[in-house]
Automatic annotation (TrEMBL), chains A, B:
A GO CC term assigned to this protein in UniProt: mitochondrion
Domain of life: Eukaryota
Gene Ontology molecular function: [pyruvate dehydrogenase (acetyl-transferring)]-phosphatase activity
Pfam families assigned: PP2C
Biased composition (Basic residues): 19-28
Organism: Fundulus heteroclitus
Residues of the PPM-type phosphatase domain: 82-491
Name of the featured protein: Protein phosphatase, Mg2+/Mn2+ dependent, 1J
Gene3D superfamilies reported in the protein's UniProt record: PPM-type phosphatase domain
Region (Disordered): 12-40
C-alpha cells in the first residue's frame, strides 16, 4: 500500500536494524498507531523472507530506494513446486520494504498431547501427516510489524486449525458430522487411550440419530476447510492485538494466502493484493479486492447502524465532493448504504461532516485515513488528530475461492501469480498473463529458475526504469513506486514434487 | 410466493369481491399482518391487470383452483412493443391470485405547477415528454393488497421521479451537475417565470466552479436513473406504510420492474421473481434473487449489530439444524455473519435460540416466517405468536441491472422474459430459453399473438396438467402449485412501435 501523498523523506537509509516505530509515517498511519509501544521489544526482527537467505550486505542493499534492486530467489534455492519469487522496495515512501512473503510446506496432524497448549510450533522435520503447501503475500502499511508477524505465523495457525479437523480430513468421503462429542472433538479425549478406543468414541461423538428427523444441512469438507482458513485469519488478528501489549507490532497488512490441501487450491484474500491463475494463456481471477469503493455499502451500513463509531466527525452518506457551508439548503447528489445509483438530497447541517468514504480509485479512503478495508493489525489506527478508531470498519476475514487443481490438467506454463498491489496498480491481469505466457514459452522448460525469471520479468515491468522524471515503464507511463512482491507458482509443480 | 406448508383450504371459491383480510393465511402471514385493519376500506379493489379486460364472469373463472385456467392477453389487445402475457392462479394456497402485473407506456415531463403537490396523476392522453415503457411483475404474499397497490402506482412514482431530473435527461450528453440550486431544482422556481428565465437559473444552479478544485466524482446520467428507480421503490414502500392507517392493504410483495428509457433497459428486482434476456437463444440473466440464503450475511450482520431486533427468541448465528438442550457443551458446526465456510463451536445456552436464518433452498426462512428478503409492504408482519417484527430485516431496495438495448441488434425471437417464482421454481433459465426459442421459431412471425402464445407455452410448462397425484409436468415431476405470471417482451418490439 503506497501513500499517494508525496512526503519529503530522504532516500538515504541509515542503520538497518529494527526501528519500526522510528520510520516515517505517511498519512495512513494516523495519530495513534504506535501509542504505548515505545520501549517494547519487537516480536520479530525486520528482515526479508527466510528463503531469500540474504547476507547483511544484501539486506542493506535491498533497501536502496535510489536503485530499487530486484531481489529474486537465488539459483540453487528450490521452493516447493519450483515456485518463482521476486521483490523490490518502494521508491521512498517508507525506509523499509513493508511487503513480506512466505512459502512453506507443512504437515497437518492431530494436535499431540505434548503440544496441546503450545500451538504454532515448528514441524521439526517430522514429515508425517497430511501435506499442506502454503504461499503468503503480506502488504504492510504504517509500519512493518504486522506483516512480518503474519508472514511468520499465519500458515502455522492454519495448519493447527486443520489439525483440529484432521480426523475428518482423513475420511474425505464421509460428510463431516454436524455435532461432535461433548467437550470437543474426540482428539481431546484422554491421551492415554488407545487408537481403537478413540475410534469408538469418534462414532459415539456423532449426535443421536433421532435428531436427524429434523432439517439438517449437509456441510462439505471443502466448506470446513474454508471455515478453518477464515477462522485462522481472525485468530491471527486477535494474536496481533494480544501481543501488542508485550511487543511493538507496528501497522497493519493486507494478507493474501494460497493453500494447497488434498487436491484443492484455496486462495484467501483480505485486502487489495491479487491472485490470478493463468491457464492456456487465459486468466482465471482468484481474488476480489477489498477497498473503500468495493466495500462502500458494508462500511456505510455499519456507520448507519452504529453512528457513534463516526465520532460526530463523519457522515455515512456519500457525496461526490466535500460540501461547503454556503451550500446548505442546496441539493446535492448522494448515495446511502442501500443505493448503487445516485440521487439528489437537500443539504442539511449533518451533511457538512466529512464523508466516511471519500475519494476515487486508488485515492479512495475510509475516514480520510486508509485505502484498504480488509487485513490484519491496525488495532491502534486512529483518524489523524482524533480519538476515532478505524478498526471497527476493517474486516480481517478473507474471501476464499477454491480451485480444483487435481481435476484440471496443467502444462508447465500454467501458473498462479500472486502479487501485492505494487504489481497490479500498473499492470492489468491481461498484461501479466501475456508477459508470463510469452516469457515462459521462450524459456528453457528444464531451467529450474524459469518461474523466478518470470517473476523478475513481471517485477521489472511494473517497477520500470529510473529516468529523469521518475520510474518509467517502457511505454513511458509512471511505474509503481510501491513495494512490489510477486510469486509465480507452476500449477503442474505439484506433480513434480517428490 | 407459495407456502410449502399444505393447508386444508377448500378449493371452493365463494363471492369474489374484496375480502383480502378474510382469506386464508398461510404461515407467511404471521400473527399481526392485518392488525388494526378490520373495517378499513381497500385502497384498490381486487382484480386482474386492466389490460386483460376480464368480465366479472371471467374474473370469477380465473380463480378456479381446480382447473387453474391459463388467462392470456385477448386477441385484439395490443400491449406496448407487442408484449405477450399469461397467468394462472395457484393450486389452492390462497383464495385469490396474489400475483399482479402492469404494462404501461408513460411520458416523463417536468412536474407542472398544476400537479406540484399531487403526484401519481394519470397521463391524461397528453403524449408529450420523454417516452417511458414499463413492465412490472408483483408476487404477493399474506394477502393481495400490497401487490395490487404497487401494480397501480410504482410506475407512476418512477415516472414522477424521472420528471424531477427531466432537464438533465433532455441534455444526455452533459454530465449531471453535482449540486443544484438552493431550494431544489430549477423547476421548483416560480411558475410565473418564463422559460428563458428558467434556463438562466438552470446555469446558475450549478455550484460555484471554484469548488471544482477539489476531488469531484463524475456521476453518469445512467446512475442517476438507477437512483430514481431505487428511490421510487422506497417511496412506494413508504406510501404503503402511510396509507395503511386509512386503508386495508394486506401483505407484502416481491417487485420486479423493467423500464425502457432513452435506449436503455433498466431491470430492477426486489425479491425472488426473475428476468432473463434471450438473445440468439443465449441466456443473459438480468436479476439476482433475494432470499434468506442469498442475503444471509446481511441479515446476520443486522442481527449481530442490533440484537434487540431478535427479541431474545432468535440467534444471528447459523446452525445446520436445531440444537437440543441436551447438546449443551458439545461442538456444533456454525457460521456467523462474516463466514462463508463452516467451523465448530462449543454450544452455549444462547445457541439454543432459534436461528435467524433456518432451512434450505425454497424452505429457507427468516425468523421461521418469510422466505424472501426484499419487497414492498409487510410493515405489520410479525413472528407467529410474538411481538417481533420482520420488517427491519427486509429491504425494499431493488438491485438494478442495465442492458443497452439500442446498442444491440435484436431479431424477432430475442425477448425479455419476466416471471414470478411460480415459473422459475420448476423451469430453469435454459429450459425457458429453449422453450421460447423453439416455440417462436415455429410460429408465424406476423402473428400479433406470438409472444402471448409463447408466454402461454411457458405457463403450461410450469403449471403442468392435473393428474391423480396433483399438477404434473410432462416429465411427471410436480408442477408449480404457486400463482404464475409471465411476460414475454420482444426486444425488437421497440422499433415497430409507432
Amino acid at each position: 500500500m503506497i501513500s499517494k501523498v508525496k512526503n519529503a523523506m530522504s532516500n538515504w537509509v541509515g542503520g538497518m536494524m529494527p526501528h519500526g516505530h522510528h520510520h516515517h509515517h505517511n498519512h495512513h498511519s494516523g495519530g495513534g498507531q504506535n501509542c504505548g509501544q515505545e520501549g517494547l521489544p519487537h516480536r520479530f526482527p525486520y528482515g526479508r523472507p527466510d528463503f531469500l537467505d540474504l547476507t547483511p550486505e544484501l539486506l542493506q542493499y535491498s533497501t536502496e530506494h535510489a536503485s530499487r534492486p530486484v531481489i529474486a530467489l537465488k539459483r540453487g534455492t528450490r521452493l516447493p513446486w519450483g515456485t518463482g519469487y521476486a521483490e523490490a522496495i518502494n521508491a521512498g515512501k517508507s525506509m523499509l520494504n513493508e511487503d513480506q512473503a512466505s512459502c512453506e510446506k507443512l504437515f497437518v496432524r492431530k494436535p499431540s498431547s505434548k503440544h496441546r497448549n503450545s500451538t504454532l510450533v515448528d514441524d521439526n522435520g517430522d514429515n508425517t501427516g497430511i501435506p499442506l503447501h502454503f504461499w503468503g503475500v503480506y502488504d504492510g502499511h504504517a509500519g512493518s510489524g504486522a506483516a512480518i508477524m503474519a508472514s511468520k505465523l499465519l500458515h502455522r495457525i492454519i495448519r493447527d486449525g486443520l489439525g483440529e479437523i484432521c480426523h475428518l480430513l482423513e475420511n474425505p468421503n464421509s460428510a463431516p458430522p454436524i455435532c461432535l462429542a461433548k467437550n470437543g472433538s474426540p482428539f481431546q479425549a484422554d491421551a492415554k487411550k488407545g487408537a481403537a478406543q478413540e475410534a469408538a468414541e469418534d462414532t459415539d461423538a456423532v449426535c443421536d440419530a433421532s435428531v436427524r428427523f429434523y432439517m439438517e444441512k449437509v456441510v462439505s469438507l471443502e466448506s470446513l476447510v474454508m471455515g478453518v482458513i477464515e477462522t485462522a485469519f481472525k485468530q491471527m488478528d486477535d494474536l496481533i492485538e494480544k501481543e501488542k501489549t508485550s511487543y511493538a507490532i507496528s501497522g497493519g497488512c493486507c494478507a493474501l494466502a494460497a493453500i494447497y490441501l488434498m487436491g484443492k487450491l484455496y486462495v484467501a484474500n483480505a485486502g487489495d493484493s491479487r491472485a490470478i491463475i493463468i491457464r492456456n494463456s487465459e486468466v482465471i481471477p482468484m481474488t476480489n479486492e477489498f477497498t473503500p469503493e468495493s466495500e462502500r455499502q458494508r462500511l456505510q451500513y455499519l456507520g448507519f447502524l452504529r453512528p457513534e463509531l463516526l465520532g460526530n466527525e463523519f457522515t455515512h452518506i456519500e457525496f461526490p465532493r466535500r460540501i461547503q457551508h454556503s451550500e446548505l439548503g442546496k441539493k446535492m447528489l448522494y448515495r446511502d448504504h442501500t443505493m448503487t445509483g445516485w440521487a439528489y438530497k437537500t443539504i442539511v447541517e449533518d451533511d457538512l461532516k466529512f464523508p466516511l468514504i471519500y475519494g476515487e480509485g486508488k485515492k479512495a479512503r475510509v475516514m480520510a485515513t486508509i485505502g484498504v478495508t480488509r487485513g490484519l493489525g491496525d488495532h491502534d489506527l486512529k483518524v489523524y488528530n482524533s480519538n476515532i478508531y478505524i478498526k471497527p470498519f476493517l474486516s480481517c476475514v478473507p474471501e476464499v475461492m477454491v480451485y480444483n487443481l487435481d481435476e484440471n490438467k496443467h502444462g508447465p506454463d500454467d501458473v498462479l501469480v500472486m502479487g501485492t498491489d505494487g504489481l497490479w496498480d500498473v499492470t492489468t491481469d491481461k498484461e501479466v498473463a501475456e508477459a508470463v505466457s510469452t516469457y515462459l514459452s521462450r524459456c528453457d522448460p528444464s531451467d529450474p529458475m524459469r518461474y523466478t525469471l518470470a517473476a523478475q520479468e513481471l517485477l521489472m515491468r511494473s517497477r520500470g526504469v529510473l529516468k529523469e522524471r521518475g520510474w518509467r515503464l517502457p511505454n513511458d507511463k509512471l511505474g509503481s513506486g510501491d513495494d512490489i512482491t510477486v510469486f509465480v507458482i507452476p500449477l503442474a509443480g505439484h506433480e513434480s514434487e517428490t
